[in-house]
Write a structure and sequence with these properties.
- It comes from Amphimedon queenslandica (Sponge).
- One of its GO terms (molecular function) is sepiapterin reductase (NADP+) activity.
- It is found in: Cytoplasm.
- Its main location: cytoplasm.
- Strands 3-2-1-4-5-6-7 form a seven-stranded parallel sheet, with helices on both faces.
- Helices cover 44% and strands 16% of the residues.
- Helix 1 links the parallel strand 1 and strand 2.
- Helix 1 crosses helix 8 (232-245), helix 4 (118-142) packs parallel to helix 5 and helix 6 (202-210) crosses helix 7.
- The protein has one domain: 3-Layer(aba) Sandwich (Rossmann fold), CATH 3.40.50.720.
- The chain starts with 8 loop residues before the first strand and ends with a strand.
- The chain contains eight helices and seven strands, in the order βαβαβαβαβαβαααβ.
Length: 258
Amino acid sequence: MAAFFNRSTYCIVTGASGGLGRELAIQLSREWSATGSTIVLVSRNVSKLEETKEMIAKSSPVNVTIVPADLGDLACLSDTSTKVLAGYSSEKYNQAAIFHNAGSLGDIITPTADQTDPAAIAQYLTANYTSMWILTTRFLSCVKTGPRFIMNMSSLAAKMPFGGGVAYASIKAARNVFLEGLAIEHPDVRMLSYSPGPCDTDMFHAVGNEAGFASTKASFQDLVRNNQVLSVAESISKLMELIKEDKFKNAAIIDYFD
């Protein structure tokens, strides 16, 4: 993908209201400044999406579209996928990309064995896995020609689960395998699962402050105490480098520290 940032691109970024997703949208917009590209920002929080849009406008002239959406609402996923892809045209754009950043921790306080509510589990699966599946398959159905790129924001937890984060780790592992399998069926579509490392985000600090599993809380607090937490800018810059170098195996799972 040597020319990835030189093409007019229709790009979707989920979870773009803050943290890694916001930084991802901002850095992508800078890379595509001279290409007439469009970035579609997706999240539940409209005001936060507007903030991201304003930040992008300060450093890049790319077109920005906002799509407020609750990816945990199963009934709305079809409509959401239609909205995020509504602006795409093969005549206008040379390539398309979707960056799956949206995600949540789930219940990190209640012991896993006590999480017995099927509705709560189903809602978590919808927000963190089903939504990725539907947006990806709709993306591939809509964008059938030209270079295509799919990125999944993964986590080291997919290989090294932590106490209290069973749901989170399971979903991250499932998302990785989803892309690995999809790459076999679509070898012409470039894919990557990227683990951003321990980053200074609300989600990271929530584990350190709220995790019900004592050793998990302690290990996350140790990372802070030992100055081992990355800024979101550092981690996303690494992702940009990986995309530019384009040396990874398709659907590879790469950690910041690899």
